[in-house]
Amino acid sequence: MRDDGRIALGVDVGGTKTEIILAGRHGRKLGETRIPTEPEAGAEATLRRAAEAARTEFGAGAADAAAVGISVAGQVGARGVLLGAPNLGWTGVDVRRLAVAAFGIPAVVVNDVRAATWAEWRLGAGRGARHLVVLFLGTGVGGGAVLGGRLLDGADGIAGEFGHLTVVAGGRACRCGNVGCLEAYCGGWGLEERARDAALADPAAGAALVRLAGAADAITGEAIAAARSSGDALAARLVEETGDVLGAALVGLVNALNPRRVILGGGVMDGFPDLLDRATAAVHARALPAARKRVEIVRAGLADDAPALGAADLALVRRPRMRG
Amino acid sequence: MRDDGRIALGVDVGGTKTEIILAGRHGRKLGETRIPTEPEAGAEATLRRAAEAARTEFGAGAADAAAVGISVAGQVGARGVLLGAPNLGWTGVDVRRLAVAAFGIPAVVVNDVRAATWAEWRLGAGRGARHLVVLFLGTGVGGGAVLGGRLLDGADGIAGEFGHLTVVAGGRACRCGNVGCLEAYCGGWGLEERARDAALADPAAGAALVRLAGAADAITGEAIAAARSSGDALAARLVEETGDVLGAALVGLVNALNPRRVILGGGVMDGFPDLLDRATAAVHARALPAARKRVEIVRAGLADDAPALGAADLALVRRPRMRG
Known about the structure:
The structure is a homodimer.
Chain A: E1 8-13, E2 17-23, E3 29-36, H1 43-58, H2 60-64, E4 68-72, E5 75-76, E6 82-84, H3 95-103, E7 107-111, H4 112-123, E8 131-137, E9 141-147, E10 150-151, H5 182-186, H6 188-201, H7 203-213, H8 221-229, H9 233-257, E11 261-265, H10 267-271, H11 275-286, H12 289-292, E12 296-299, H13 306-317
Parallel strand pairs in A: 1-4, 4-7, 8-11, 11-12
Antiparallel strand pairs in A: 1-2, 2-3, 5-6, 8-9, 9-10
């Protein structure tokens, strides 16, 4: 786990922007820049532009980098080939090989949520916990885990999809094709869809929320937060249910994986910070005594640059060669 | 992972009997005996009697054993201390230290389901799969996993309680204190309780089952299997629901852990073997495409001696010292 004081590049390729950082010892950020992502231009062009931006912005620093870590919003196979990336459309692309060619240094490729999980463990709210579960509740719900000091990867490199744990068997349809997934209730889209359905089913109860949003179809997390602040009963109930399902999922995860710490991050947590207390209360009330006794449930410690930081750190820790 | 051709003892301390085996290379069973467990006599006396039985039964073989693995039906902490063992009542007992004293050789202590998981991986239906999830559906539902070739242990040595994943949020009460656990639906007690409740709620539908069992309170898994064979609609529905909940849990586990293989064993699987097909169909229909593509779902390969065999093998692999 020593990083020898070397430096690395971290590149987080998102659907709209690509964040590029230069990271030194202990994840210290030495430089940062970003370029727009143009998915339709392809992975090769995107990585070439990222490498150019790094050279322009970081100069000698970029030339000194020992390796580059690429973080991608998609399912990354064990050898750095994208198995699926709905926001980028680069399925089947060998991103690792393209990154080696573009940057001229060894590269690792990792899913963005797993990269952020690693960053939280090494540099953020997960430090010191060798058994860690991370959930990011954004539009969807992503996850990752460090178990026994190792990033959970799975047989195909895609483990950690805790957003697609079935928590409500026979429940709401998830975008993934399953029913009753955590994400279908606690992801941003799931919360908004539940609000819309509730407002349409009971127009009187939904009146305030619909007025605030303009239409039932237009209800956002922000509208739910605002309505709740002004005392709206439906908004309060929606958030309460979100906490109940999140708590139910966390009880199961704590029982199944026995982590020392659980980290909760993402936009839904930012919008409804009291979900942390609700979920924590559920775990302390209902998880197995030996598993709940010492578990801590905390908010994420890093900002939006966590995936790029984690990818850079993984690039140093995994010591990739030029040919994988 | 080499075992050097050494031999080890494996001792599985159950609530009613203690199984003692002598295991050689590749888990080959060189000898086997069993004694009744008398929990109230305490752990020290039980382990002493097991050591005596091993010496009597295996003679020179027992003297040659390099280590002993103790498998216990309970929550085993990281250093071999029992954190909870409802069927034995030995909470807080340092089983590892007592085993070293009784057998005079280094000892490891492991939960019985984790020991069986390890045995399935090394010697049974899990061979060759470096990412493996195991579920044993007996009276309760126990579990274990091998991830990246390592036995999942967790921060307190108690990971793998997949029977206490929440699958039906807000659902049936589980004996563990949570609601909606997999075990509350698919463990033997959960199945029987659901049958009783259904028979009491709808006496006409439950008539055949109650007649077969003698009383609603006395409905067993065997009675459900018999009623179903003779065409009873309620029994068929109960098994169908069991498969639905098991499938929902497996979809989530496959998404979360991305195993290459899932092993299902235990008395409920023996009684209702077609649950395997139902659960497999759910995973193939609803798990994330990249996670379900190469996953295999199979029956357990070993018999009741799996915990003792797994404990013996772990004792060789982990190379314990006399003082932990």
